[in-house]
Design goal:
Helix 1 runs antiparallel to helix 2. The longest helix is centred in the N-terminal third of the chain and has 22 residues. It contains five helices and five strands. It is α+β, with helices and mostly antiparallel strands. The termini are close together. The chain has a five-stranded antiparallel sheet, with helices on one face.
Length: 146
């Protein structure tokens, strides 16, 4: 089975929880485990928050695009912004690194995403926006039947 949805939301912090719940509701049709669902929701929260805080620097006129697809037991989530991009992706992926220390950010966004998802690809460049592609292989009851 292949199914998908696309969502565009303004880059405002209030939409982070909406994105997390929308993705979780869609993925629920595969009957994931509670841990799997929590991990996906957390990864979405981190990716969307990164777009808001870092990509658009809290400019609410920015748009975040979210695309989720499911095929058999594989969930693919893409979170994309057209913000300022990341000039040094390796530095940004370093645990505890933050480009916004004045905001008391933890610097763990990419680390959390990479620990909770099975595959993570980050496409970015200075002034080119950022696209995070996250893949999760589900082992929940329904996934094992398919």
């Amino acid at each position: 089975m292949k199914n998908f949805f696309r969502l565009q939301i303004p880059a405002v912090s209030e939409n982070e929880s909406f994105a997390r719940v929308a993705v979780a509701a869609f993925v629920a049709q595969l009957d994931p485990t509670l841990d799997e669902l929590t991990e996906i929701k957390t990864a979405i929260s981190e990716a969307v928050t990164n777009s808001i805080i870092h990509g658009y620097e809290e400019n609410s006129e920015g748009i975040i695009e979210i695309e989720v697809s499911i095929e058999e037991f594989i969930v693919t989530v893409k979170v994309k912004d057209m913000g300022i991009g990341i000039t040094d992706i390796e530095e940004a992926r370093t645990p505890l690194y933050t480009s916004k220390p004045e905001l008391e950010r933890s610097g763990m966004g990419f680390t959390i995403i990479e620990n909770f998802m099975d595959e993570v690809t980050i496409n970015t460049g200075a002034m080119q926006g950022t696209e995070i592609i996250m893949i999760k292989h589900l082992t929940g009851a329904k996934a094992l039947v398919n």
